[in-house]
Amino acid sequence: MGFRERVMGIPWVYRNFSSGIGKTESRAWFANEVIRASPTARILDVGCGPADVLAQLGNVTYLGIDHNPKYIEAARARYGSRGEFHCWDVTDPRLATLGKFDIVLLLSVLHHLADSEIHTMLQHVAATLKPNGRVITVDPAVEPGQHPIARLLARLDRGRHVRASHRYRDLVSHHFTPVDVIVRHDLLRVPYTNTVIIATPRSIARTVN
After folding, report:
1. Residue 183 CB neighbour total at 10 angstroms
2. 206 in a structural domain
3. pTM of the model
């Protein structure tokens, strides 16, 4: 584990950094226009970190998964009984045993994983999604014509698999039907490109070779 991974793996560092570069209006847009969780929604957050998104979600049923025990400890300390938290890897097959969810969040997860790991994880996620459920992914992207600072920040990200938006879409399409692929350059206080994918279940997923 490199220096950046060790530092950003500290919950208060991660939270303060995210809060410092994030915009209040962007968090509101994401919660209200993208997630759109009803009060009765069951939400699975895979790679939840310290579960900061839960502060935007109201009184939902929330289950968070992360491989970092410090993140899970911080989430439990902050939210208590508002959520259930497990220290598992995002490719853990136990994901498929958690029951059915209305929404599965994969926030800043895909760009940390190789293609094969994404396929393994999404196979498990597919087993947890209700027929009318949604999968929502958010990741940094490299795009033609993006701001040079945005491209530099994407290249410097601690995730080693930052991709173009169409590559994220293609990976998700093996398991789900993408409904919306949204590319935003203005969600942070600094130039940065994010790809948001909203996808729904498909009856027959393509075979992954």
Report:
1. 13
2. no
3. 0.89
> What is the four-CA torsion angle of 110, 115, 116, 117, rounded to 10 degrees?
-10
**CATH number reported for the structural domain that contains residue 21 in this entry:** 3.40.50.150
Evaluate whether residue 209 is within a structural domain: no
Instruction: Please indicate, yes or no, if residue 207 is contained in any of the structural domains.
Output: no
> How far is residue 118 from each of residues 13, 42, 147, 148, 201, measured CA to CA in Å?
27, 22, 27, 28, 16
Report the domain count for the chain: 1
Indicate whether 160 belongs to any domain.
Answer: yes
Closest CA to 42 of 132, 118, 174: 132
Q: How many CB atoms lie within 10 A of CB 147?
A: 14
Please give the torsion angle defined by the CA atoms of residues 204, 103, 42 and 109, in that order, rounded to the nearest 10 degrees. Answer: 110
The domain of 176 spans 3-201
Residue pLDDT, tens place only, 117-172: 999 999 999 999 999 999 999 999 999 999 999 999 999 988 999 999 999 999 99
Q: Give me the phi and psi of 62, to 5 degrees please.
A: -125, 135
Write b or e for each residue in 65-77: b if 16 or more Cβ atoms lie within 10 A of its Cβ, otherwise e.
Answer: bbbbebbbebbbe
User: For residues 112 and 154, what is the distance between their CA atoms, to the nearest angstrom?
Assistant: 12
Report residue 136 as tokens.
Answer: 């929502």
